[in-house]
Amino acid sequence: MTGIADGAGAVTATPAAGTPVQPPAGMGLGVSLRPADSAAKTSGTFPYAADLWAEGLLWAAVLRSPHPHARIVSIDTAQAAEMPGVRAVVTHADVPGDASHGRRVADRPVFAKDLVRHHGEPIAAVAADHPDTARLAAAAIAVEYEVLEPVTDPEQAFSAEPLHPDGNLVRHIPLSFGDPEVVGEVIVEGLYRIGRQDPAPIGAEAGLAVPRPDGGVEIYTASTDPHADRDLAAACFGLEPERVKVVVTGVPGAMGEREDPGMQLPLGLLALRTGHPVKLAATREESFLGHAHRHPTLLRYRHHADAQGKLVKVEAQILLDAGAYADSSADTLAAAVSFACGPYVVPHAFIEGWAVRTNNPPSGHVRGEGAMQVCAAYEGQMDKLAAKLGLDPAEIRMRNVMATGDLLPTGQTVTCPAPVAELLQAVRDAPLPPLPEDEPEEEWLLPGGLEGAGDPAAVRRGVGYALGMVHMLGAEGADEVSTATVKVTGPVATVICAAVETGQGFTTLARQIVQDVLGIEEVHVAPVDTDQPPAGPASRGRHTWVSGGAVERAAKMVRTQLLQPLAHKFGMSTELLTIADGKITSYDGVLSTTVEEALEGKELWATAQCRPHPTEPLDETGQGDAFVGLAYCAVRAVVDVDIEIGAVRVVDMTVAQDVGRVLNPRQLRARIEAGIAQGIGAALTENLRTSRGVVRHPDLTGYALPTALDVPDIRIVKLVEERDVVAPFGAKAASAVPVVTSPAAVAAAVRAATGRPVNRLPIRPQAAVVNRA
Length: 773
What we know:
Layout (H helix, E strand, L loop, with lengths): L37 H6 L14 E7 L5 E7 L1 H4 L4 E5 L9 E2 L6 E2 L5 E2 L5 E7 L2 H10 L1 E6 L21 E9 L8 E9 L11 E6 L5 E5 L4 H12 L6 E5 L12 H14 L3 E4 L2 H7 L6 E9 L5 E13 L5 H10 L9 E10 L13 H19 L3 H6 L21 H10 L29 E17 L6 E8 L2 E6 L8 H13 L3 E4 L16 H28 L7 E4 L2 E4 L5 E3 H5 L3 E8 L16 E16 L4 E12 L6 H20 L5 E2 L2 E2 L17 E8 L15 H19 L5 E2 L12
Parallel strand pairs: 1-14, 10-31, 12-13, 16-17, 20-21, 27-30
Antiparallel strand pairs: 1-7, 2-6, 2-8, 3-7, 4-5, 9-17, 10-15, 11-12, 11-14, 15-16, 18-26, 19-20, 19-25, 22-23, 23-24, 26-27, 28-29
Helix pairs in contact: 4-5, 7-8, 8-15, 11-12, 14-15
Protein name: Oxidoreductase
């Protein structure tokens, strides 16, 4: 398979014992049900936030700081406010409620007041009759700055003056596991750097705020966690949460909480101030400056092993650049420290991790956060050990892989399926792609592309392996819960759940679950808003697990309501009745009727919640049962490298993944392929560059995303369906773990081709150049 297929993530539902279900071919779990919105998306009629309109609409623009660190001496809005067509100008002085906000820590101002802490920080916002007028008015706001020296090196943040009243340290985790005095027979060390990857969503942030008659406001936006956004906005506006409503519009691609609160909050303030609907569609530059990015990370590692290559001890220091504000950096650090040794058995581990504030762009949740950075480092260490011991890189990994029952360095026992050895063996055994001399010569297939390559004789092929792991759901005591309602009227079922469809395939999954349980083919999923009970953020496979679990429970409750009168009438239990293809039949064939006839014009509905088993925070030594579940992946990368110019072409990516259960084959493949593509970008091209804290080229010309020509054949050679018994359907998160694993595999392949250490992502051309003399 090649490229990126349509659809997204997968969710699973294992029918409980005593619930016989025989869904017809083409519906239910396990089939490639086509997304209901696919036609609208492909035809261009799907309603995204940038397409919204309202009567009396005003346009907003946000003034952002050109400096990464400065003291605000004064803000003069008089000239902007007097411009024809301008309806309102708001600054920090116009925020009626909480002036600061944050996902985890409320340290980020709605508008900068005294200090600017990063390039692009919001200073003020304008509402006007025309978008050009709004932009001109924003530019007319006179701000006097006292430019300060920015802190851009996270190592300097420890000794620099505090950038925030809370200081520069967001979190410190000193993990200690085993005996610190143990020393291995073989020791390798490495220093690794991971760049700043941007989520680069297909559509930039946009939204519409509409004032309500009760003095509240409705915000229409592509939110991935509407209830959290509602509560944040209500606190900012000084309103009760019930007077703020967030309505989720079409999400043009997302990787968790990628949206910029600095866009939503000014929108609502302007709507409340003017009494008119206000719309803002961010430019791509504003998108790059406003939303969170992957944490740039510095990692120092020391691996100890015995003479046979068995790991003895891992020592590491991990430093995350949180940027100007805390956001989700504490969670990212917990993942990085906990998975710092990878899916390997390590008897002794001592990992010290820090997340610090700087004047760099904000960092936050990006798919595989924390786990991706450490994977690149520990896999680099495994390659170094293999070279020092003269072992095959796949073999040294095979000698150390973890399995169910092993311990993480946090002391938590791995209770879920952990088929790491099986995954590695699958990619190891897969046939390699043919060498270039075995194929017709095509110049565009050479590194560098058409007319971009040097001497073909300088091209070297490399093969690299990587193993990765991620956690599912929230961690460290996060209360993971979701609520869903299933209604049945005649031959139609409706699902009401505030789980946002971000491309992971939840709406398709919800339809499949109801089809599986109730045998009803026509299932609709209601639009999401905050009038519904909360379902939490769309990240880390949550909606597959908790929201899918809530839908399944509600559907089973409806099934019981439907079948109980029939079972009572015929003197049998509901477990002896089967629903399939819209018909209800008994085990002995005596009863046969349709669902519609059994309903007799009644409407049945039920509401249910799903809440996984609790977790606990890591203690002062990094110990604790912090994670609900884990997922694993193995990737083998094949690359061709022009060792004279440093150009790299990824030839083949072979994947084996631990998925628990395949719920929608097409969507699952699409999620894995998309994750691999994103990982290739992190490995070779994607790095939001800064110069003394100022973002350079914040656009899709300066920020190099991989194209279709950069994504090779992606061969999924094995999907291990060993169900996780604590998950509602036994399924595992699908998209994050290939993102985590593939950059490390590409780096390993470049190491194999060049013999160079390759300790930085993305890989720079000079790192792949070899002196041929």
